[in-house]
Amino acid sequence: MSSRTESMPAPAGIDAAESSNIRWFVCALLFAATTINYMDRSVFSNIEPLLHSVRFMGWNPAADKFHQPVFDNNFGNVLICFQLAYGVGFLFAGRVIDRIGTKAGYALAIGIWCLSSLSHSLVTSVAGFCIARIFLGLGECGNFPAAIKAVSEWFPTRERAKAVGIFNSGANVSFFLTLPLINYVTSHSRLGWRASFLSTGFLGLIWLTVWLIFPYNKLRRGATQIQAQVAPGASQKQPLRMILKNRGTYAFAIGKGLTDGVWWFYLFYLPMFLNRAYGKSTSQAYIYILAVYVISSFGSVLGGALSGWRMSRGHSLNDGRKFAMFLMALLVLPLVFVPHMGTLFPTNPWPATLLIALAAAAHQGWSANLFSTPSDMFPSSAVSTVVGIGGAAGSAGGAVFTWIVKHNLSTHPLMIFAISAGVYLVALALIHLLVPQLGAKRLEQQPS
């Protein structure tokens, strides 16, 4: 994976494109869209306790001896509807975005998920929530295929992972914004929990308005001309059969399928761990969970910038990308010690929290580089399709890993954490076997 490349003259127009700050405004839009995306999907979980007081909703209004709402299977059913729609939608969203273009495709995706979010405020039954969540999943699955395609259209190779890391950190930033927003609007509005869905839905509509006004395609002409000079045929439509024949498609899908479920495990496990091992309530655990999100945000940006930094020092695209992914995979390994932290530090949650935070930060750095590989291996006209296929694989892999965790965490915790710690190295090894040289067949990597 280690090799240096000789300096090659940049094609005409590259310097001008890189000196413009417009691409960073585009990155800011992608960051905002990703933040809103995660806010919309997390509102339901945050307002779920309020639904127990609404009897006609179908939620179980009973309480246990501690006067806390009894968990109702309806909540799980609604979540499953979203997850299934989100995973299946990936198979189609990427292809649609490649066909109609980034601007139109992103507008369509966020339009669907914003209207779906707003529609939650009209729901009067569990079935209504299920339908609204299905459409929300079908819209939200378009975010990453469109965002990654936009990065491939606006950013040079060495900056792509950094740009992905920046906009992907919106997933973490949403944590800081969602709960305060929900607490404010539910306590200051007569609409109660319904105001939560209206507030995040309107945030999406504001973003959509800015996106439609922004002359994306007009300002991107320079970047399009650069792509035409560097990689002839990059703007041509790519047949699906050719994409499916390319080993790079399966390399990306394997990377997503093996590691996506681990990210959700990090975040879902921590609140339970803090409660079971240290007796921390939800409010008491907030500071520890906050630390995980803050540290993982830094990991997203720094891990993404690492590959570009290495390339700027003369290393090849293949070396820069895989070196960064290898380092991130190594930083996850200490996660295996988490099951022992409750015994070693029975009154101090910070050691376990920081190990999980390090793993979460490394995952985000890994993802920033993994998300950049489709643009390393494919022309921009195929990137969304590949990202969509990988997203579907990630959803499927996440479901499988969740099933494994469900049946083994309480009895074999060390096994679960060992899998979580080692799966990144396995994924990278398989990616390297399938694609020994990232970008080797891309014309933009060849000297002119």
Q: Give the helix tally.
A: 20
Query: Helix and strand string, N-terminal first?
Result: HHHHHHHHHHHHHHHHHHHH
Describe the largest sheet: none
CATH class category label of the largest domain: Mainly Alpha
> How many domains in all?
2
Round the mean pLDDT to the nearest integer and report it.
Answer: 84
Explain how this protein is built:
The chain has 448 residues and is mostly helical. The chain folds into 2 domains: 7-230, Growth Hormone, Chain: A, CATH 1.20.1250; 236-448, MFS general substrate transporter like domains (Growth Hormone, Chain: A, Up-down Bundle). It is built from 20 helices and no strands. The protein has helices spanning 14-19, 22-51, 73-100, 102-119, 126-140, 143-154, 157-168, 170-188, 194-213, 216-219, 221-230, 240-245, 247-278, 282-312, 317-332, 338-344, 350-370, 373-377, 380-408, 413-434. Helix 7 crosses helix 17. It is globular, with a radius of gyration of 22 Å.
